[in-house]
Amino acid sequence: MRRFNHKAFLFVTLMTLTSAMAFSSKSAYNKRSSVASALFIFNKRANNSGSSNLPKYDAETDRYSSAVATSKDFYPPYESLLRNGPLPLITRLTSPDKYEQAVFKYQYESKETDLVEAQANMDAFFSAPDVWAQQKMLEQRGEREVYKYGKPLDPERVALSSIWGGFVLVIIGKLIYLNVLKMM
């Protein structure tokens, strides 16, 4: 018989509450309470010559908008799945406006002119906010090299992930078939 692990339970509960608080408000990405803003990740000023390509913030509507890019310019949803798993894909499909605003806000605050890099960063954020925030904090301190989330996907990794995902789906399907459908 397994004993209940209180430390693991508290850790998981704390992580869940932390993530829930980051997403709790209706416009969590437009307030200074988001994970990235709380850590002051974007206080540094980048010297990008393409600052005219950055989204603009409209205080009246409390929204970010880009004159150059729209959500149609984002990479396809399956690439969100391949880059960071199902969580960013689910967020993208169920809350497209929240996803778009998160990408534009990241571009605005970080002065990132590359839309693919901004989108890949937000995919990583939606996948694991605490890991992404820690990476950005360590990058800012100079303790870790800057990770390019928007780099092209490695075909070998995509193939291996697809094979592994197919294998897991076959096993789950077989378990459902044997344990649920046969009982009916």
What string, H for helix and E for strand, traces the elements in order?
A: HHEEHHHHHH
Average pLDDT across residues? 79
**How do the strands of the widest beta sheet line up side by side?**
1-2
Compute the gyration radius: what is it?
Answer: 19 Å
Number of distinct helices: 8
Strand count, sense and barrel status of the largest sheet are: 2 strands, antiparallel
Strand content: under 5%
Low-confidence stretches: 9-49
Can you offer a commentary on this structure?
The chain crosses the membrane at residues 158-180. Keywords: Membrane, Signal, Transmembrane, Transmembrane helix. Residues 1-20 form the signal peptide. With 184 residues, the chain is mostly helical. It has two domains: 28-151, no CATH class; 154-184. Helix content is 58%, strand content 3%. The protein has helices spanning 6-22, 35-38, 77-84, 86-94, 96-110, 115-127, 129-141, 155-181; strands at 56-58, 63-65. Helix 3 packs antiparallel against helix 4 (86-94) and helix 4 crosses helix 6 (115-127). The longest helix is centred in the C-terminal third of the chain and has 27 residues, at 155-181.
Question: Which helices and strands occur, and which strands form pairs?
Answer:
Layout: H1 6-22, H2 35-38, E1 56-58, E2 63-65, H3 77-84, H4 86-94, H5 96-110, H6 115-127, H7 129-141, H8 155-181
Antiparallel strand pairs: 1-2
Helix pairs in contact: 3-4, 4-5, 4-6, 5-6, 6-7
What's the quick description here?
With about 180 residues, the protein is mainly α. It is built from 8 helices and 2 strands. It folds into 2 domains: about 30-150, no CATH class; about 155-184.
